[in-house]
Amino acid sequence: MDFVKYETKEHYAILTIDRPKALNALNSQVLEEIDTVIDAIDLMDIRCLIITGAGNKSFVAGADIAEMANLTQRTGEQFGRKGSAVFRKIARLPIPVIAAVNGYALGGGCELSLCCDIRIASENARFGQPEVTLGITPGFGGTQRLARIIGTGKAKEMLYTGRTIDAHEAHRLLLVNNVYSSDELMPAAEKLAATIAANAPIAVQNTKCAVNEGKQVDIDSALTIEAHYFGNCFETQDQMEGMKAFLEHRQHEDFTNN
Ligand code: CAA
Question: pTM score, two decimals?
Answer without folding.
Answer: 0.98
